[in-house]
Amino acid sequence: MDSWGHLSVDIASSHLSRDERSSQRAAKTTIEKLPDKILLNIFSYLTHREICRMARVCKKWRVIAYDTRLWTAVSLRPEISGLHVGSLESLLALISIRFGPSLRYIELPIELITHTVLHELANKCPNLTHMLLDFSTAMQLHDFSEMQAFPTKLKYLCICLSEVIFMEGFMRKIYNFINGLEILHLIGTYEKVEEEEEEIYEVINVHKLKSATPNLRVINLYGINFIDDSHIDAFSSNCIQLECLAVNYCSKVTGSTMKTLFQRSKRLRCLLMNQTSLVSEHVMQVDWEKTALQELDITATDLSTECLVDMLTRIPSLRFLSAGQINGFNDSVLKAWMEQGNPRSLVALDLSHSDNVTDDGLHKFLSRYGHQLWGLSLSGMPHITDQLWQSILPILTNIKIIIMGTQERLGVNIHVDQLMDGIANNCPNLERLELRWDPENLRFSDKSQKAIDILRVKCLKMRCLVLSDGRYYEVVKANFERADRMTVVRTTTSCRCSNYYLLYNYKDLIFN
């Protein structure tokens, strides 16, 4: 009888549908029964603020939340991460108990940068290689006279400078510990400076710093009001491994030591000089033919047409060029570059806000070299409409980043459905797309959903689609969200695309 009974149960079970059997199994499976290893992997996708909330659920989740493997990269700046440590005692306990040998990266605000904290990091976190120290809001520094230890394995150091606090007392204590640095960021207060002229303080001694950091590969001096050509000269005199130098928004840089820079730094392949005060005569003195330069940003400089032609026709192999907002950049520059230079290695081009380049000049250049481009930015140019883009999209078969449109109200309409359709059918590798046109200039129909569907289905690598706020933005956002691609569509008020993603040292140049 027992065997017949079991048989009847099996027969009854076999009559259950697949969905019913799945629901029975699901009813027996809860998150409580997942192995710790799986839970740990799930937690790894959460922010640290969310992990702290999860720790309150139960004892098991608390143990997992405090696993040191979830705390390898930590920001303790509330405005960045939302994490706030209330006291030095709490931080010291965290370093000892939760961070330990697993910690690789840490960001500290001014109130937590003390010699005791730095001692603990040096002693308890032997694998710490990346550190950010934020002094930007400092009114005064802690006393570092007793500091005897500092992390010794740092490869990356980012220091956010104050406008008025002199750093030499602190820097003098760490010089002996940072000679292994490969990446250095010094971040100034460019975005905070008011228009009226104020006295400029040299709050950090670059000439001493360069002697302590001979192994630097990447130097980023961003928005520092006292940085000039002498500081570039100082770094080049001691950093023979230099591959990438960025001095964006350092307005005192004129290029007077650029020739010496390339003579000393034979490996220098990336030079970013956005919003500097470059002088054409200095730039033309550089022996460009002998350089290893591959990536150049001269956006919003005042270089002449003669200088641009001289430089672009002599650089042997340029793969990345950002030269927007330059009055001297016109069709004659593009023509000379095509006929006398070597754009055959070019993969990224940004000519945004270059009003003296015509759509005809761009069409001729892109017809020849568009097929090799990965990134193209032609924004802020009212005369460049969807007609030019429609004509060159079939050429941009390898493109990954496209930035188009202007926020100025135009006298013509942009037919965005046809534009999206052209992008979808010609650019399968597209990862980032930004349309900056005013929403009032965008014309689309009731059939827009079809064009958006084609874009979403054919551009599967799309990570970011940026649009100006408006009705079309809402339509596109809803379409992607229905397909569970929640983070792709963004607004220009909170996100901007850039060709910088294509720089060799992009990951090294990122800072908060």
Task: Explain what the structure shows.
- This protein has 21 helices and 18 strands.
- Strand 7 (244-246), helix 12 and strand 8 (270-272) form a beta-alpha-beta unit.
- It starts with a helix and ends with a helix.
- Helix 18 (416-426) runs parallel beside helix 19.
- The strands form 2 sheets. The protein has a 16-stranded parallel sheet.
- The protein has 512 residues and is α/β, with parallel strands linked by helices.
- The radius of gyration is 28 Å and the shape is flat.
- It is 36% helix and 13% strand.
User: What do the pLDDT scores average to?
Assistant: 90
Helix share of residues?
25-40%
Number of helices: 21
Shape: flat
* Total strands: 18
Termini gap: 74 Å
Pfam family, one: F-box-like
InterPro entries: F-box-like_dom_sf, F-box_dom, LRR_dom_sf
Organism: Bemisia tabaci
Protein name: F-box domain-containing protein
Write a short abstract of this structure.
The chain has 512 residues and is α/β, with parallel strands linked by helices. The chain has 21 helices and 18 strands.
Outline the fold blueprint:
Layout lengths: L1 H13 L3 H11 L7 H8 L4 H7 L4 H7 L7 E3 L2 H4 L6 H12 L5 E5 L5 H10 L5 E5 L21 E5 L7 H7 L8 E5 L18 H7 L5 E5 L6 H10 L5 E3 L11 H7 L5 E3 L7 H5 L10 E3 L7 H10 L5 E3 L8 H10 L7 E3 L8 H11 L5 E5 L6 H7 L8 E5 L8 E2 H11 L5 E4 L6 E2 L4 H11 L5 E4 L3 H12 L6 E3 L14 H4 L3
Parallel strand pairs: 1-2, 2-3, 3-4, 4-5, 5-6, 6-7, 7-8, 8-9, 9-10, 10-11, 11-12, 12-13, 13-15, 14-16, 15-17, 17-18
Helix pairs in contact: 7-8, 10-11, 11-12, 14-15, 18-19, 19-20
